Amino acid sequence: MKIEENSQTKSNENEKSEKSKKSANGTVDPKDKIQQEELSEEDKALQEELELYVHRLKESNESLYKPALEALRTQIKSSTTSMTSVPKPLKFLRPHYDTLKNLYEKMPTEETKNLLADIISILAMTIDSESHKTNGEALKFRLIGSKVESIGSWGHEYVRHISGEIATEFQSTAELDDDYKAKLLNLVEEIIPYNMRHNAEAEACDLLIEIERLDLLDKYIDNEDLCQKVCLYLRSVVPFVPDPDNTNLLKTIMSIFLKYDKLTEAIRVAMQLQDIEAIQEIFDKAEKDPSIQKQIAYMIGRQQIILEIENSDLLDISSNSHLNTHFLTLARELDIMEPKTPDDIYKSHLEAPNRLYSTSVDSARYNLASSFNKDLGMFSATGSLGLILLWDVDGGLAQIDKYLYSKEDNIKAGALLACGIVNSGVRNDCDPALALLADYVTNSSNTIQIGAILGLGLAYAGSNRADLISLLTPVLFEKASIEVIGVTALACGLIAVGSGNSEVTSNIIQVLIEKSDVDVKDYFARFLPFALGLCILGKQNSSEAIIEALEVIQNQQFKTMAKTIVEVCAYAATGNVLKIQSLLHICSNSKSEDGGDDQSGSSAEQSTTSSTSSSSRKSSSYSKSNSSDSNSSSSEFNIQQAIATIGIGLIAMSEDISCEMAFRTFGHLLRYGDSMVKRSVPLALALTSISNPKLNLLETLSKFSHDSDSEVACNAIFAMGLIGAGTNNARLATMLRQLAQYHVKEPNCLFMVRLAQGLTHLGKGTLTLSPFHSDRQLLLPTALAGLLVVLISLIDPKYTILKAHYLIYFLVPAIQPRMLITFDEQLNPLPVPVRVGQAVDVVGQAGKPKTITGFQTHTTPVLLSIGERAELATEEYTPLTPILEGFVILRKNPNYVS
């Protein structure tokens, strides 16, 4: 008999039963009838028969005990039930539960005791645990029962109940003795195979996670189908599990994939773990199948991981040297090779005539992306050549070379930056970027120096190369401007992103110790602690040592701000709820408008002075020429709040539920936060939805793009560009055209509108800025780092992005094609039909459910948007990786019949 029961129905049945059978002392009288309503003749007969068996157990004739117990077992096991009702034998026996427990001790033999223990165990499942204090009794009597039959013979609901009680025992504060623990583990090893056989893989995994014995899982997975289901479920659990349990989960998934030689799946998990040794080991293991090794090389290249690879063909693939060629192939296929002018993107002919007013206000800003100012405008314009020639190392450098001989420092600096941009994400044994830029790192011109340093940072982002860090480190200790030092720190952080490089961190901390209070008030000084954060991006607890080292900073406000930056970066994209709560606490510790402290009374707040009442005055307090010591102290605390706000979006960005919760939270911050918090909320919103223009976000940002505070408006407009980056979203394009007319007299806002329009049409809709790929399973650290630099800069847009335009080029590491291109095993392009549709979550679903919905059939190469998934529409080929994104190798299906 299988006992299948809905828990809600069970409690309802309990309530009805309890109400109908309460005696004067408030306990259930077993002599009362089970139900007040009339029973059928068949039910009455069953009830009387069961009561007779219980009565026989009370008699003194011991020879009747065993037959009565056997009869009770038979009745319970043979009864049938629906999913919404308790089996009738258990329903009728429920009033006798206490009686049977009392009779247990009176049983004369071990055999009869064990048989009765089985019945009490199954009955305990149906009893209200609070009123009868039966917690753990189902498990207790199961352990002392007969064990003649397997646990599964009593049904799925009983197994689930026992599993819950086992988990509770393991999580109890009391230390379990070894014998009891061994008994529980024996029971677990009986439950797991039962669950695996009955499509309850999720429950088996949950039990092993609760008792922290995931190592037992491997031996119960005996086929590939089960392997996929279990690993899919475990991956879905990872975002909700704290560190280090999430790491243990990923390691378990990797070992299961390796057991079945699913190397392309295992390499993704290894990349998620950022375990270079495991990645190298899996790559080497794939040598026996060259096609699989090529596919892994493509995946390594997408994640920009550097391995020791001797094969030159594989090295070229993993170095992304093919990227530009294949991207141009896609562009030709889509017929988008024809260049566009700015007016084509702005759709100037649709704007009202008063647009022309902007040219008289600031002609330079209109002409260059209607955009950059004069001097640094030349820097940025020349640097933009690198974007046009992105990833084309050989052809691109030849076209940029002539600008390196310009007598104008800004043009020369832009050419150096362009050299770095062209090499971004592409590895080359000749190191052309290093050869061209190294000599300019110590140039006497600040502009040229910044161009060279920034170019190196972008070209070698994520490489963690010691020679580059040694080249840049002396600049940190030179008597250079804080702008040069800040950019150098960012370049070092970008090169060492996520590596925890001790040389970079120790040097930057040394600089922070040596710099005076005056220096740390500069906007570029914030990049020093931010570079520390980039070094430990996503490393969680690794931040503790650095945070401790920051205690030596004398300036209290700068120290607090620096700690917040480092902590936020360390928990990037982890979904850590506790960290989000602590950041919300920082945001709530704001100064009241009348200048008094609020009731939260944090130490950071008590040391600040009052904020001015108008948002325009608040923003003016950032001007170095007008700020007093008290105002600068207050501004540093406000900066900390701004970073905390961005940090909420940063931590929540990896998981959809966290993003929804963050969206609600940001609504409160917009209503009640200070001006600095309001300025940062659009940036945090953008971070939760990069290149994914959700309607509710666009409407919220559109509202704040008309804000009276120009800096809030600027950030909201730029955030709209980030959310729609590379999507060609028609609704967003219309919003931005309207904003161009609305802000026609505001050069700064108009500049942001033009940038947002450019981002929306990024690569004519073929590129993305999203740091996530591989069905959102993997995060590209260099992409996230680049996005963060720009967002941190936008905390004070007037003094950073709107003046130092070159900071926008930190977006370059995040720019990636959103395409699917298929090859045969000889790496020749292979056009095949694919279905592209919205991804469907199939975790825990039985059978082989559809993984996409609302699909359309296309022929590769195709574009994939955020939230879309592709699958082959033909059985002629099988993909070497289950996730069809980027470059995918197809193998001829030997069983295919035309």
From TrEMBL:
Is S-adenosyl-L-methionine among the key words of this record?
no
Q: Which SUPFAM superfamilies match?
A: ARM repeat
Q: Can you give the residue ranges of the RPN1 N-terminal domain? A: 50-351
Any one Pfam family match given in the protein's UniProt record, by short name = PC_rep
- Key word Cell inner membrane present: no
Q: Where is the 26S proteasome non-ATPase regulatory subunit RPN1 C-terminal domain?
A: 843-896
Task: Tell me which UniProt keywords the record has, alphabetically.
Answer: Proteasome, Repeat
Listed Low complexity bias regions: 599-634
**From its record, what is one biological process in GO terms?**
regulation of protein catabolic process
Q: Where is the composition biased (Basic and acidic residues)?
A: 1-21, 29-42
Molecular function terms from GO? enzyme regulator activity
Task: Note the InterPro entries from the entry.
Answer: 26S_Psome_Rpn1, ARM-like, ARM-type_fold, Proteasome/cyclosome_rpt, RPN1_C, RPN1_N
Positions of the UniProt region annotated as Disordered: 1-42, 593-634
Quaternary structure note: Component of the 19S proteasome regulatory particle complex. The 26S proteasome consists of a 20S core particle (CP) and two 19S regulatory subunits (RP). The regulatory particle is made of a lid composed of 9 subunits, a base containing 6 ATPases and few additional components including PSMD2. Interacts with RPGRIP1L. Interacts with CRY1 in a KDM8-dependent manner.
Query: What does the UniProt record say this protein does?
Result: Binds to the intracellular domain of tumor necrosis factor type 1 receptor. The binding domain of TRAP1 and TRAP2 resides outside the death domain of TNFR1.
Protein name (record) = 26S proteasome non-ATPase regulatory subunit 2
Provide the species name: Dermatophagoides farinae
